[in-house]
Write a structure and sequence with these properties.
Layout: H1 19-30, H2 34-47, H3 51-68, H4 73-79, H5 81-84
Helix pairs in contact: 1-2, 1-3, 2-3
């Protein structure tokens, strides 16, 4: 974390794609592991101090959980905004 060098013009994922489109892309790429991929992205963003990207990936995670119905309550609590703030 913190190892990546971002362009100073970077405004976050929410400026280039909607959470809905990101969720659809992750579902297509990762199948049943899509929610875990989104959770990893959220944790990386949080660790890097990118609050906007963190919120974006949490929204993607929540959409994927709702779509699949496979996320356990424990998994949702671990990634929810309340759990990390």
């Amino acid at each position: 974390m913190g190892q990546h060098s971002f362009n100073s013009d970077w405004q976050g994922f929410r400026h280039i794609v909607s959470p809905e489109r990101a969720a659809a892309a992750l579902a297509e790429l990762y199948g049943r592991q899509a929610a875990m991929a989104a959770a990893q992205c959220a944790l990386e963003a949080h660790g890097d101090g990118r609050g906007g990207d963190f919120r974006f990936w949490v929204a993607v995670f929540e959409m994927l959980c709702a779509m699949s119905g496979e996320c356990a309550e424990v998994g949702e609590a671990a990634i929810s905004m309340d759990a990390v703030n």
